[in-house]
Amino acid sequence: IVSMAQIATFAMYAKALSLPISYMPLAKGKSQHFMAMERLYDLMLVAGVVIGYHYGGLVGTGVALAAIHWIELGALIIFAHAKYGLQLSSPIIKYMSLQLPIGILAWASAQLFSGWLYWCASILFVSLSTIVSLYILHQKTSLWNALMERIHRRR
User: Fold this and answer.
1) In Å, what is the CA distance from 3 to each residue of 6, 13, 135?
2) pLDDT of residue 155
3) Which of 3, 4, 133, 142 makes a 20 to 30 Å CA pair with 10?
4) Using CA of residue 82, residue 86, residue 89, residue 92, what is the dihedral sign?
5) pTM
6) pLDDT in tens, 7-57
């Protein structure tokens, strides 16, 4: 199960980008477009998980989950570009190009290392990803200020 979850984690990167894009049709009052894309995603997900499990067991399921989410992201980008003129902004591409390699390195280190080396690499990559995320939040001053205000209110 751990190997499946480690691979399926790559779906998270695609989902973080696809969720806001998938809600564009709803924001535009085009619920039929939203439902069509959701049906397509659901069919791909079911087929992908069945095929992935059949050929690769739980690890194949993880690969299928990750692949389906990336395919969905590609389909959503193409659809939203064609229908609404969506262009991914350069900051979004930059943030993904910073975070995705960290995820890939974290996954690779989990496959290669064990014991204390595994934990050191894990701490390194979690710390690095956190620093990148905080840097991005800090660049978006309003988000950073809202986060700091929320933290101070809890005290």
Assistant:
1) 5, 17, 30
2) 66
3) 142
4) negative
5) 0.82
6) 999 999 999 999 999 999 988 899 999 999 999 999 999 999 999 999 999
